[in-house]
Amino acid sequence: MPEKYWPETVVLWGAGATKNLGLHPTSELIQLVLKISKNDFSFLEDKDEKLASAFKKLVTEDLIKDPKLSKVYDFKALETIISTNTKFNMHELFTMLDQLIDNNMGFNAFCDGKRKFLRVERVQAAKRCLILLIEELERLSIQKVPGCMDEEKMEPYYQFGKILAELMVEEAKTFESRGYKMDTRRFYLYSYAIISFNWDPVILWNIFNVHKEVNRNPTYLKNGLKLQLYDDFGTQIASAGLDENECEIRYTTNESQCKVINDYSYPSRTMRIGKVLFPHGMFGSRICPECGKSIVTFAEKWDRLSSEIFGPSILKPLQKNWKYRTPKEKLNKRGAIECPYCGQITYPYDMTLIIQSLSKKKNIPALEELKTEMGLLIKNAKHIIFAGYSLPIDDIMVKTFLCHLYREMIKKN
Q1: Sorting pLDDT into bands at 50, 70 and 90, what band is 246?
Q2: How confident is the model at residue 243 (pLDDT cuts 50, 70, 90)?
Q3: 200 phi and psi angles, rounded to 5 deg
Q4: Residues 332, 325: contact at Cβ < 8 Å?
Q5: pTM, 2 dp
């Protein structure tokens, strides 16, 4: 059998790659959560006043006084748990929470000379609160003014996306001249893939916008067909269409679409596609609690500086420009996204985030599929680029793949 084609270059994208934007690595996030638990908001001094005030309101009022929010996101319970050990790191904290939840156990806290017991339901709500704080801290960190990211800081990521797009167009011309069939992987699959271990979709959003510009002014190949560039998430995901008000089912592109569109029997246009995977999940993504489908939302319009790509916040001022589209979303608000499949409302706690826990259990099918795709990409890569990714302690799978590759290299040499 001929050799299977996979992208030659795989970029492992980590927190260090986006630190310049103000996004916090894990070590900083836990320190900020500890400060918040002590009512220390000094880290907000340089932030926009409206954003800083909204975040303080979220933590000191909404998550404590709102009867519904405080039950779902139990900040008081999280505060109690953290107060028992102020030297927690994120791995330890999430691991402990997961172990308690998996074993249906509550938490015995001893603080301020008193003993306090939290039932497992409150431990679950504390974990939801911790994930919510992480999301809101990252959303807050990237906004220069409400609803908008810093154009100067974002420019290098946009230029990076443009360079990648230009290279993929040139690749298409080269592969066409070599006679590669356009409905084969060797032609339509980019020679690079990005595996992002970040939860933020910054790199994806910049690539999306660059591809949108390229596709509006396409290059024509020798066969007269226009070339268009797209991205493959590695699994089937439904997305609400940009610039639309309806919660209609729209799918992200994938390889099967490439093979059909590039079919020589029905020439219309030519597609190329690249793998951009988020095996740890992504802000703005959800798993519907009723039908189990994977959905994602980005923004209402193509604005590469919009913070809407983080999805809706439970507090309107923290996501200024977010507009709820459907009657159900407008009724529920508080970060609601309607599932386009079954109509169920999803909330921020339905996000598909893999957190830094050493207590590993079987993930949801969509993320399991991504991990399989990730393994194949790493295994078959000729070049692996570490872009701000530092192999944290809980990424056992990635370490295993890299160790395997290293052993194979030793054998060959």
Answers
A1: low
A2: low
A3: -80, 145
A4: no
A5: 0.90
